[in-house]
Amino acid sequence: MSRLAFVFPGQGSQSVGMLSDLAATYPIVKATFDEASAALGLDLWALSQDGPVEDLNQTENTQPVLLTAGVAVFRAWQAAGGRTPDFLVGHSLGEYTALVAAGAISLADGVRLVAERGRLMQSAVPAGEGAMAAILGLDDDMVRQCCAEAAAVGVVEAVNFNAPGQVVIAGSTAAVSAAIEKLKAAGAKRALPLPVSVPSHCALMKPAAEKLRPVLESIVFSAPTIPVVQNVAARIEADASAIREALVQQLY
Question: Of the residues 35, 51, 94, 129, which has the maximum number of CB atoms within 10 A of its CB?
Answer without folding.
Answer: 94
